[in-house]
Amino acid sequence: MITISVAAACLGIYLVSQIILIERRLADIPGPFLAKFTDYWKVYHLLKGDYGEALYWWHQRHGPLIRTGPRHISVGDPNEVPKVYQIKPLLHKGNMYKGVIGWFKGKNVAGLEGIVDEVEHANVKRVIAPAFSWKSVLNYESHINHSAAELVQTLENRGVVDINEWLSYWAIDSMINIAFSSDLGFMRHGMDIGGTLNTVRAVTSIWMYVFAFPTVFMWFAWAASFFVGPSGKLVSMCLERVNSRMQNREKQDKATIKEEDLLDVYIKARHEHPNLISHERVIGMTFTTLLAGGTLRRSIWHGQSALRRLQEELDNAILADTLSYPPTLKDLSKLPYLDAVIKEGLRYAMLLQLNMDRVVPKGGMKICGRHIPAGTSIGCQSRVIHLDKGVYGKDAENFRPERWLEASEEQRKLMERCAIWFGSGKHTCIGQHFARAKTMKALSMMVMKLEISDSDETAKMVSGAISSTRGPTHPYYMKIKKRDPVQTKA
């Protein structure tokens, strides 16, 4: 009994000494007082929905390094982004990612975003990454065209619409189309089918609590997966399509499987790498693909001047006979102002509310001229980085696509290198090319075919935290009518 007591006392002394040692090493890094002892400050603001704003305030007043927890540091210098998310040496994902591991009856079904083991992540990514390259995205252009054209046709006769609502319908319909070669009909019916968008919001809302207590939620989710099954229209459709398609594919020789959509890609990967891609993982990857599509709502409805200039660029391309309807991704990629609008929209969205944590490797490392001890979690946050005036200009808090055209080549490369709109480094979002292609298509096709203006010129787009992401939080009404076609030379 005495031996156990002595061992417990020694363990307690060791843990306390480690806490004191870490505290001394990070003591001179500014931050909220509570952050020295607990993650409560960060958890409080995450759940309140103003973490990005609160963290931005601290960085503006106290510099590039802010302590947000006993072993957590927010890095606010955009020039340090490449170092935080470098590949050699690789900084491993922080504990926050444990919470997004998906479980199905006790089995790990995480997509790439939830795989914390670097070897496993590299192996899975190597198998499926080719299907997400820009070249491969071009193979899905007909699916992307279909959804964008349906959005245009649906809106042209509706008069005044809540643009945020309809972009949500388009975002998830288009991603389902890419995944399954069909959709649920959000745009056709003009409504949230089966509460699907509510399911997406609910899942991403849970992530706020998950990121606050990642290890606890990981074990809770694992245990709950034995008793609670997935539910909801989106989930049931995903399960039905995956199971049905896989049963049919089992009857085929794997060499004859034709890749027509993303589900086919996942199933082919399952056939070729059964030890790496399980049946459950196919389900998990498919569902997280749909979740990502459902939360993507990039738009430029921040100023009519940007819309007018974009319309002028598209019209000039039509008159020059270098663009037709529907426009091809190849032709759209040649339009500089459209490219600037997309980049500015991504920057200004400041989508992710959290720091993308990485763990400082053995031996520690220098960040912002300060030695950070091994085991410390460091990460950048999109609001802090994307509103940096030193990189993006004195008007960084404004939506202004022209900054990308006015910048020198060196400055433009710096802005792109510092951007974390799709993450950074090895773990950059694999679906970034799909997101860019979808947005380019929908935006250009809407501007080519529709007259779009504010319903209320005094109204403003209101954005804020929507669970773990940031986006429009209130309706934004716009007047839409069919546009007269541009008259080309005979």
TrEMBL record:
The chain crosses the membrane at residues 206-228. Coiled coil: none annotated. Heme binds at C429. Its cofactor is heme. One of its GO terms (molecular function) is oxidoreductase activity, acting on paired donors, with incorporation or reduction of molecular oxygen. It comes from the Eukaryota. Pfam families: p450. GO terms for biological process: mycotoxin biosynthetic process. InterPro entries: Cyt_P450 (IPR001128), Cyt_P450_CS (IPR017972), Cyt_P450_E_grp-IV (IPR002403), Cyt_P450_sf (IPR036396), Cytochrome_P450_monoxygenase (IPR050121). This is Cytochrome P450. It comes from Penicillium fimorum.
